[in-house]
Amino acid sequence: MKAQTSESHFRLLAEHAPMPIWISGPDTLCTYFNQAWLEFRGRTLEQELGSGWTEGIHPDDRGPCFESYLRAFTAREPFRAEFRLKRADGTYRWVESAGVARFDDEGRFAGYLGSAADVNDRKRGIFTPDPEAMRLVFSLTERERQVLVLIAEGKTTREVGVQLGISYKTADSHRSRILEKLGVHETASMVRYAIRAGLLEP
Question: pTM of the prediction?
Fold first, then answer.
């Protein structure tokens, strides 16, 4: 009864918190989102529960995001990841989500408690292009830089192919070469290179 009361009090506080908050159960599926989260997403609680919220993750960020989450979940370690999440107005915004393992009064693992912060504005701060990032980015071919910019702007690999008039396979091949040349393994890191090099506005 005491645990239920504590949980009720927490959810009451969370409902009025300005930051989006989420809770997942021991099966990795989400069991709660506060009002701030639902307003950001423009969806109902029923739509977001379970794995419903993942429909809003940018297609190119889903793999790395899931991998980070499941790795942390399995090890019961703190979770932190940056990915693009669709906002209520249909635009993708970079968010940083962080969570920690939670346990019940008897010490049993109960899932994760986490929050999310919109970091798009942080990426728009005044900065000086990084020389090393510029060197690497401008060692790419012109076509590879075009692909990099479009992906950084939120386009999927398929959309990149359509916009540039090339096949999905060719666009994906360019994306793979960009990752290899920049020495990174995920879209988020690739995008950060484009921003640091001044290829697009932070």
Answer: 0.60
